[in-house]
Protein: ATP phosphoribosyltransferase regulatory subunit
Organism: Fertoeibacter niger
Amino acid sequence: MKAAIRAEAAALFAAFQAAGAVPVEADILLPAGTLLDLYGEDIRARAYVTQDPLRGEMMLRPDFTVPVVQAHMAHGADPARYTYMGEVFRKQDHLGDRASEYLQVGFEIFDRDAPEAADAEVFALFAGLLAPLGLRPATGDLGILMAAVRSLSTTSQRKAALLRHIWRPARFRALLDRFAGRAAPAPSRLRLLERLAQASPDALIEGAGPQIGLRSATDIATRAALLVADAATPPLPAPEAAMLDALLALSAPAAQAQTRLREIVGHMPAMAPALDSFAARLDALAARGIDPATLPFEASHGRSTLEYYDGFVFTFHAADPSLPPVASGGRYDALTAVLGQGRSIPAVGGVIRPNLVAALKGAL
């Protein structure tokens, strides 16, 4: 079984090298601090964490993208193409056949000149390699959704809250409904606001007794002031909330989706650059033989992935809905800025799971 998976991995690895990628490796044991800084404590639920007496908290590699980006930003050429092959480790939250340790083979492009062309190159390469399996593709564009949020007529604090929870659909929906005035604040928030209306944060802190935890009195007072200011913020205009609802629900072939997105941009013009990028990507895909008239597109696609994708996203699925995606990927420009300490470069890539490729070919 493992031999068949290794054979598929080696074939994919060779195909990516034939496409111009340089093979790279990444440590299996990674510093936890970087991943926690990027994703917060949520990553603990998905990664294996251990303690090293000298290096501190460490994680078994949950994916390759972060270490590959770190290595590129430290000493990589520009432009660059990379490929890698190796195990990743993910906790599973239910019993079943999904492995917690499995091989990934990936392909990444770092290129400033034509991001949409790079998106199309990665997707078309994956589509060609996986064509014999008859998989179902799915695409999206988180950049469009982020642009829609940034164009809303509300405070920067509310926009930041929505952007922070793009990858948490339930939390995002709850915030949107509250900001639009369609849902009442939680009773606990209302009680706190009532108390803040009766006394200053400093007085409430002083009356609460000894401080417990890492937040200072200044941090708590600042947070209280933000809560009061948010409570006084007018609701999001109903037409804007409706447009965001329509965007979140948009699911159509990419060419049809482009028409609908143009209608939305008419009401939210700040989205125009993101839609121009979407249109350029469709042209680049068409030039590589991918028909936008049949390519599935969902505006919400990719919102349950690791939290570094910020543009084009894609997956390839088998007919069996119980299986995870056979391949997935997308654009992660912002991640390069975070890990590049002020420097950045447009980047896109994806991974294929050779165990699923082997299973679908009947090799297991």
